[in-house]
Amino acid sequence: MLAMANTPKSPALQQLGGNLVLAGAGKMGGALLTGWLAQGLDGGEVVVIDPQPSDEIRALTARGVRINAAASDVGAVATMLVAVKPQTFAGAAPALRSYAGPSTLVVSVMAGTPIAALAAQIGGHVVRAMPNTPAAIGRGITVAVAADDVTPQQRATADALLRATGAVEWVEDESLIDAVTAVSGSGPAYVFLLAEELARAGVEAGLPEALATTLARATVAGSGELLHRSELDSATLRQNVTSPGGTTAAALAVLMADDGFRPLLTRAVAAAAKRSRELAK
Ligand SMILES: NC(=O)C1=CN([C@@H]2O[C@H](COP(=O)(O)OP(=O)(O)OC[C@H]3O[C@@H](n4cnc5c(N)ncnc54)[C@H](O)[C@@H]3O)[C@@H](O)[C@H]2O)C=CC1
Ligand SMILES: O=C(O)[C@@H]1CCC=N1
């Protein structure tokens, strides 16, 4: 697992006050669990349900985390976080339901899985959320929406759990989550593809592959960090690179042409949002 960027303790996580079941401790569930433990959650309150836990997850038993404990041994579950694949959810739900009670807070990060489906198949009070993989270094962004029956305290708990891996935005309209998934949930993959293709284009332009890969990676990472730290918006940061009549302007004339980045990314985001809606069926 990757180290978190910073690990201030979270009073809300230190006083969670009840069992927390994590269903699915893969890339996203594992990143969340790492964040919670780093921010002071007592491992003794955590139960991981996963038929194939990684060695890193198994090692957390040393911190008190229980793995695949039977529902009858766990007792009351205050909070459940569901991070299995959406396609796995229907098969996993009956077992997960046995851990949840009527007052359990159920937080799902599954793509394309509506609040109504979660409430019907697991029960409890549901928060639907969409994080992204920079969560693994505490730099994710999550958008969350709460069902009407989620109490203010449960919402605060969900916020603390999600905030352990980065920023959190709350919305009231669940239908926005499909577009959120397409922009920030899937978005890191678009950025990594940019690094891949920039390297490939560098090789086409005559660079040795290793140097092209190093340059592309450092450029994407450094630009992301500049965007993160700067108070300037991305258009201004772009303009700061662009000398009139210079090399960047020549490249941007291609990227910003009618058949450039804008229609391409618009189509890509629309395809991801459509897939999110399809997963709900
Ligand atoms: N990877 C990403 O970038 C993001 C993923 N998500 C969502 O997070 C969820 C998990 O995705 P990943 O972590 O990428 O997948 P993953 O494949 O890394 O993790 C899924 C985990 O679920 C476990 N699992 C399988 N069957 C199970 C069962 N019956 N009960 C409990 N656990 C079971 C697997 O062993 C695995 O460890 C998905 O619903 C996905 O839509 C959301 C935002 C971003
Ligand atoms: O590709 C997916 O379906 C998941 C949801 C957002 C990122 N990964």
TrEMBL record:
GO terms for biological process: L-proline biosynthetic process. It is an enzyme of class 1 (oxidoreductase). The keyword Metal-binding does not apply. It catalyses: L-proline + NAD(+) = (S)-1-pyrroline-5-carboxylate + NADH + 2 H(+); L-proline + NADP(+) = (S)-1-pyrroline-5-carboxylate + NADPH + 2 H(+). Keywords: Amino-acid biosynthesis, Cytoplasm, NADP, Oxidoreductase, Proline biosynthesis. Its EC number is 1.5.1.2. Its main location: cytoplasm. InterPro entries: 6-PGluconate_DH-like_C_sf, NAD(P)-bd_dom_sf, P5C_Rdtase_cat_N, P5CR_dimer, Pyrroline-COOH_reductase. One of its GO terms (cellular component) is cytoplasm. Residues 174-279 form the Pyrroline-5-carboxylate reductase dimerisation domain. One of its GO terms (molecular function) is pyrroline-5-carboxylate reductase activity. SUPFAM superfamilies: 6-phosphogluconate dehydrogenase C-terminal domain-like, NAD(P)-binding Rossmann-fold domains. It comes from the Bacteria. The keyword Methyltransferase does not apply. Pathway: Amino-acid biosynthesis; L-proline biosynthesis; L-proline from L-glutamate 5-semialdehyde: step 1/1. NADP(+) binds at residues 83-86. Residues 22-112 form the Pyrroline-5-carboxylate reductase catalytic N-terminal domain. It is found in: Cytoplasm. Catalyzes the reduction of 1-pyrroline-5-carboxylate (PCA) to L-proline. Belongs to the pyrroline-5-carboxylate reductase family. This is Pyrroline-5-carboxylate reductase. It comes from Rhodopseudomonas palustris (strain HaA2). The gene is proC.
